[in-house]
Amino acid sequence: MSAQIIDGKMVAERTRNQIREDVDSWVEEGNRRPFLQVIQVGTDPASSTYIGAKTRACNDVGIETGTAHLPDTISAKELKKQIRKFNEDDNVDGILVQLPLPNHLSSHDVIESIDHRKDVDGFHPMNVGRLAVDQPTFRSCTPAGILELFKHYSIPTKSQHAVVVGASNIVGSPMAITLSRENSTGKATTTICHKYTKDITRHTIDADIIIVAAGQPGLIKAEMVKEGVVVIDVGINRVADETSKKGYKLVGDCDFEALKKKASWITPVPGGVGPMTVAMLMKNTLLAAKKSIYPED
Questions:
Q1: Which of 63, 80, 115 is the last residue of a domain?
Q2: Domain range spanning residue 106?
């Protein structure tokens, strides 16, 4: 058996083409272009790379964007003042604070200061709460992207046992909530595992679908899963590679080469989930501009 590869780049391109058409139609109807405001605190190189990818994606689909570069010494009070300014600006549809933040700032505190109607990352407690009770909401972009992949490849979730490895607020928790809801994208029996789980294989071996977002290269090995499992690898890790010009290569949290001999479907790293995350951010920004989730009174 050899797994079919889930091509996130291809599905993301199709998704972005559709968003571009929707943006063009929105503008032709006499509306202004959607605008995404990014806030970067400090100069973390990885954050700069991610922001660059998001900016290029915005340009690609016709969404306007700007990045506010703030010093890593900024106080919580001053940062929230900046966010409040964008909350009150009717020309800003979506606000994204690039994480991680410097240690002296609480990401929970900062995210909660964003107007939930502009929270296109889907991290605000209001949006997470609405997700939990199956109300329309801005969905966290990575779980939303994974659902799009399932939809595109007709991978069923209903009555499947989905094991989510990693319990972060960004991927693991919202993914598990989404899969367990009684709607068209859920109806799965869902288990969450994390670094404190005893004998993780006892859970993963029973999975019909395994979604791994633990940030640990090679965590899930072939002997930990059953034949025919669907493997979604969210991890993206740099590991040393002397054969590469850069001196490193990007790998996921799964042993891809071994698992693809047992799985029915598998995402590669890179080129699997990552491109979908950015595409869903574009989709959320358009939804925010259209006031689709939170209609104006």
A1: 115
A2: 35-115
Active site residues: 54, 98, 121
Which residues, listed in sequence order, are joined to residue 5 by a DSSP beta bridge? 266
- Phi then psi dihedrals of residue 210, to 5 deg: -125, 130
Instruction: Judge if 198 and 100 occupy the same domain.
Output: no
- Structure-token pair, residue 81: 């003042």
In our burial notation (b when 16+ CB lie closer than 10 A, e otherwise), range 222-232 reads: eebbeeebbbb
At 62-110, the pLDDT tens digits run 999 999 999 999 999 999 999 999 999 999 999 999 999 999 999 999 9
Q: Which pair of structure tokens corresponds to residue 165?
A: 């490895």
Report whether 192 contacts 164 (CB < 8 A).
yes
55: CATH: 3.40.50.10860
Find all residues with CB under 8 Å of 202, minimum gap 6, and list them.
none
Residues 250 and 172 in one domain: yes
Neighbours of 159 (CB within 10 A): 9
Please give the tally of structural domains in the chain. 2
On whether the pTM is more than 0.85, the answer is: yes
